[in-house]
Amino acid sequence: MVSKDMDQDIEKVFYTEEQLQARIAELGAQITADYKDFDEEIFCVGILKGAVMFYTDLVRQIKLPINFDFMIASSYGNSTSTSGTVKILKDLDYDIEGKHLLVIEDIIDSGTTMHYLKKYFAARKPKSVKLCSLFSKPSRRTVDVDIDYCGFTVPDEFLVGYGLDYAEKYRNLPYVGVLKPSVYQNAD
Ligand code: IMP
Ligand code: MG
What we know:
The chain is α/β, with parallel strands linked by helices. The protein has helices at about 15-35, 50-60, 110-120, 180-185, and strands at about 10-15, 40-50, 65-75, 85-90, 100-110, 130-135, 150-155, 160, 175-180. Strand 5, helix 3 (about 110-120) and strand 6 form a beta-alpha-beta unit.
């Protein structure tokens, strides 16, 4: 069960709110510099739900006009290991043909989700596609995924907070950490 005081369930804080925000400001500045001479606005696609916090903080650090869109793709059930299949539960609202797509994701783990989505996007003929992920766990990769903008490279640990969940909980923690083993042991 999740404690009322969620901080009690965290064994170790990996990134504080300040560290996350500082890195996101850097990513936003880099993206702004890279896209400033582009002919059209950036079409920012956030992958819900995990990327929601990162998306809203990052786009406020991109000092250029953007389009705002989201998808829901799921490769996970309520467990901490991937099932290998990707389902699109919510598609894009807009046509992306000829657009400069910036895909904003929380974490690239096995790579299954993003490998699938990149093919899905390419089939819709955008002008360009770049990927920005807050976290990458390269030691877990089963398929290669190029990340154009990566916030942090992390070890093989299951992270929660700042959008990342365990069984849909802990997304609203403002920092990122790992759970105490007792939280998994007491899972329903
Ligand atoms: P992949 O398809 O294995 O790369 O997994 C991608 C998705 O799995 C991410 O978008 C997350 O939603 C979820 N995920 C992977 N690692 C973690 C983690 O450490 N904590 C929480 N969610 C994770
Ligand atoms: Mg995700």
